[in-house]
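Purpose: get a first structural picture of the assembly so the mutagenesis plan has something to point at.
Setup: two entries, given in the order below. No constraints added.
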Amino acid sequence: MIEIKDLHKSYKMGKNSLHVLKGINFNVEEGELVAIMGSSGSGKSTLLNILGMLDEADQGSYTLDGVPIKNLNEKLAAQYRNKFLGFIFQSFNLINYKSAIDNVALPLFYQGMKRAERMEKSMAYLEKVGLADWATHKPNELSGGQKQRVAIARALASNPKVLLADELTGALDSKTSYEIMDLIQKINDEGRTVLIVTHEKDIAQMTKRIVNLKDGVIIDDRKITQVRAMQDV
Amino acid sequence: MFSLERWQEVFETISKNKLRTFLTGVSVASGIFILVVLLGVSEGFQNGVEKQFQNDAENIINIYPGSTSIAFKGFNKDRRIQLTNEDYALVNKETDQEIEFTSPLYQIFAGLVSYGNESGSYRVEGILPDYQFLEKADIIEGRFININDVKAKEKYAVIGNRAKKDLFKDESPIGKYIEVSGLNFKIIGVFTDPGGDREETRVYVPISTAQIVFGAGTDIRSMGYTLPKEENYDLALKQSNAFAAQVEQMLKSKLQIDPKDESALFISNNIENTKEIYLLINAMKIFFWGVGIATLLAGIIGVSNIMLIIVKERTKEIGIRKALGAEPLSIVGMILHESIFVTSVSGLFGLIFGLALLEIVGPYIELDFIRNPSVNFSIAVSTLILLIAAGAIAGFFPAWRGARIKPIDALRDE
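Result (C-alpha cells, whole complex):
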C-alpha cells in the first residue's frame, strides 16, 4: 500500500539546515495497523506529513497504492488527499461553526457529491462511531472523545485507502483514549490500513507493528502481538 | 463556479457566522450610507451657495444708451441715444450667439400705484416673459406675464411681494385691480426675488402695454440677455465678451455712433462681476470631490481590512478544508463568493437608506447655505459597484494567500 525509499527531508532554520529525515525505507501492506514511535524531534510527525502529502520530501520516492507521489501541484495533491487519505489530528480540527454531520460531510462536498447523498452517507458514518444522536450538535457541545469520533467519521467518509492519525489520543484521558483505540482497532479489523503516530507506549501496543524512529532514521521495526483496547477498560 | 452546492455552502457559512457577517455588512453599509449622504450634502451646499450669491442671473448682459461724446457723420456730440423695438429685434436677429433668455425693458421709476386707500410709489417695468429668468423672480401666487398678454397688450400686472404686503396686507391680490397712472391693471401674479425688498417693490406689466400707457411709442430703455451656461468661467467670459462686442458694433453702426465713442452705449457684462462666484463654486466642487474620494478610499480600506482579518481568522479552517481535499481555487472562490455576496447586499442596503434619507428629508432642508440636498443616482450606483469591486480585489489577495497556505502550517497547534 505504501512504499517509501530513501526519504530525506531537511528544514531551513535561518542559516542552518536541520536534517530531519535521513533516509527512511519503509513499507506498509494493506490492512496493517502501524504505530510510528519516537521522542519529539525524531522526525515522526514530518514523516506523517509527507505520507499525508501535506509536506514534500526533498529526496527519495513515495508510492501510494501504486501511484507515485511526486511533484504534485496543489490541485492534484488536494485530489489525492481526498481520494486516498483520511486524517485524524490530536486537536481534532473540526470546523467549529459546522454541526457534527456537516463536518463529516465536508470531504464528500469536495468530491462533488450531492447534498442529500452526502447527508445520508455522513449519517451512516456517524452511526458507525456511535454518534448518530449527536449529528446536529456543534463541536463545542461535544466532549473530547466525541469530537475525536466525529473526526474519525470524517476521515472515513471519503472511503480512503489509508487513515493517518497524529497523536490521536494526545488530548484525551486514558479511558477515552482506549475507547478511541478500540474504535480504530475495529476499523482496522474491517481491513483498512491505519498509521498512528504516537509517543505513548500503551497506545503503540494496541497496534500490530511498531516502527521506532530516532534522529531521523528507523532504529527498530517489528511486528507485535496486538493488545485489544477493550480488555483494559 | 456558481453552482447550487456552492451557494448552499456559502449561505451556511454566512448564517452560522452571524456576528462576522453582521459586522462586515454594517461597515460596508455605513460606508456607502455616509458617502451617499455626503454627496447629497455637497450637492445641497452648491445649490445653497448659488442661490445665496445670485440676485439676478449671474451671466446677464444689459445694454442701455447714453449720450454721444464724439460728433459723427454730421451729428453733433451730446446727442441722446434712444433704443427702440427695432434695435432690439435687430440684435435678436443678427447675433451669432445662442441666446438663453432675453427681454427689453421700458420702465418708469416712480409710478403711483394704488389699491383702495393704500397707495405707494413703485417702479413699473414693461417687460417680456423671459424677464422672470433674467431677474430670477419666483412666482408665489398666480402666474407671470406670458407672450399672449404681450401680444394682446393686456392691462395685467405682476407685483412684488413687498408691494403686495404694502397694498393688500393679508388679502389675496389675484384678480384685483390696482390703479397705475390712472389706469386699472388686473393683478395676475405675485413674485419674490432673491434681491429682496428693493426688487420686490416692482410692478411688472407687458412691455407692449407699458409703451402705450406711458406714451413711449416703440422706445425701450434697455435690453437684457443671458447666454447658455458654461461649465467653465473662462469659456463663459469669452462667449459673453464676443456677444457684447458684436452687439456694440451692430448697434453703433445702426445708430450712427462713432465706434470710439464710449458714452453713447453702455453694455454691462455681469459675468465679469461673477468671477468670484464661479471660482468659489469650482473650489467647492474640487473640495467635495476630494472629500468624496477620501471617503471612498476610507471605505475601500475598511473593506479590505475586514477581508484580511476574515481570511486570517479562517486560516485554520482553510487548512482543514485543504487537508480534506479542497483545491486552492475552490478556497479562493469560496471566500470571494462570500465576500462579494455580503458586500453587495449590505452595500445595497446602505445605498437605499442613504437615498431614502435624502429623498425624504432633503426637500425640507432650506438652510442659508444648504438647499435641497440630492444625489445623482448613477454616481451612487457606480460608487457601490466600485466598492464591491474593491472589496473583491481586496479580498482576493488574502484569499489567494490563504489558499496557498500549506495545510501543515495552518493545522500546526500553537
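Chain B has a mean pLDDT of 81.
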